[in-house]
Amino acid sequence: xxxxxxxxxxxxxxxxxxxxATAKFLAQNxxxxxxxxxREERLHAIVDEIKQGGGDAFSVKADVVSAEEMQNLAxxxxxxxxxIDVLINNAGIMPNSKLYELRVxxxxxxxxxxxxxxxxxxxxxxxxxxxxxxxHIINLSSTAGYHVDARSAVxxxxxxxxxxxxxxLRLEESLTSxxxxxxxxxxxxxxxxxxxxxxxxxxxxxxxxxxxxxxxxSIATAIAFSINEPDDTLVSEIxxxxxxx
Length: 245
Ligand code: NDP
Known about the structure:
- By secondary structure, the chain is α/β, with parallel strands linked by helices.
- 47% of the residues lie in helices and 16% in strands.
- The protein has one domain (8-240): NAD(P)-binding Rossmann-like Domain (Rossmann fold, 3-Layer(aba) Sandwich), CATH 3.40.50.720.
- Helix 3 runs parallel beside helix 4 and helix 4 runs parallel beside helix 5 (153-176).
C-alpha cells in the first residue's frame, strides 16, 4: 500500500467501530493518522496501541457538530504535519425509530451529526487541500443511503444527503483541482452503532440482527483501497455488505 505511506489522514468517529479499525489499518500501512471523536480516553488508548505498534498517531477531542472544533482539528493537523492529505468523515449515529414516535430530538441529532458534521469537516479541510492542489475527502454513507426501511426515514435521509454532498464535491473539484471525493457505503457492520437506539421496537430488531454484521476491518480495507489507488484514479463509490443477511 505504497500510496498510503506518509499520508496525513484525519479520521472522525475514530473512538470505536469503523473509525477505530480504519485508523489502526492505515497506521499499520504507514499513514500519519489524526483520530477525532468526543470520548478522549478511548482515543488515547487507541493512539497508545498504534504507537506501540510503531505507528504515527495523535488524537484530538472534536465534536463534529461544532464547526469551530472541526476547524481546530484541521489547524492541529496542519501545525503538526504541515498538510492534510485525507479526511475521512466517518462519525455518524443511527437512533432509528418510526416517524410517528416523534423522537424529534433524535431527528435533530442525526441531521446535525450525519449531515452538518460532514459539511463542517469539508469546510475545515477544503481550503488547505485547494492550496495544496491535492487531497482526498472520504464520506461514510450506508446501504441506507440507497434505500429506505420502515424506521430509517431520517437516517436514510441523512445518508442520501451524504451521497449528494460527495457527488457535488466530486463534480466541483474535478473541474478545478486534484481533490478526490469517495463515498463508502457499508451494509450491516459489527460496531456500537445499534447500541444507541432508544425506540423499544428498534431495540428488539437491533438485538435480532446484532452479531450478523461484517467486521469493521472489511470497511477499513475498502477505505484503504480508495486511498491507495494512484492519485489520478478516483474510486468514487464502494458498497461493502454482508454476503448473507
Ligand atoms: P460506532 O457507533 O461504533 O462509531 C461511531 C463513531 O462516531 C464513534 O467513534 C463516535 O465517537 C463518533 N461520533 C458520534 N457522534 C459524534 C459527534 N457528535 N462528534 C464526533 N464524533 C461522534 O458506529 P460505526 O463505526 O458503525 O459508524 C461509523 C460510520 O459508519 C457512521 O457514519 C455510520 O452511519 C456508518 N455506517 C455504519 C454501519 C453499521 O452497520 N455499523 C452501516 C452503514 C454505515 P464519540 O462517541 O467518542 O464521539
